[in-house]
Amino acid sequence: MNMMDMFGKMKEVQSRMQDAQQTLSNVTETGESGAGLVKVTVNGLKHILTIDIDPDLIKPEDREMLQDLIVAATNKAMSNIETKAREHLRQATEGLLPNIPGLNLDGLM
Length: 109
Known about the structure:
Blueprint: H1 3-23, E1 28-33, E2 38-43, E3 48-53, H2 63-93
Antiparallel strand pairs: 1-2, 2-3
Helix pairs in contact: 1-2
Subunit structure: Homodimer.
Protein name: Nucleoid-associated protein M0L20_05865
Family: Belongs to the YbaB/EbfC family.
């Protein structure tokens, strides 16, 4: 692969990465805690979309436990979306660049 081809590919990679980043809002992941009593859904931009709380948990005496469950579900969703978003971006640029050891595009996410 000559340098001109490489620069052309880099422009294409950059364009595809921008397109993929724009569609990350459509990639979602849900984290659960308390055996599904609390569910938090986030998107690939790491924005919380929904928090679903089982109605049985909404009692004043359970307030502290509910807060802990929300934090746990949110952290799980955020952890899971990272992998999903990385895979989304990998698929968007698949086949554009040769396998170059040490070339890591994760920082573009």
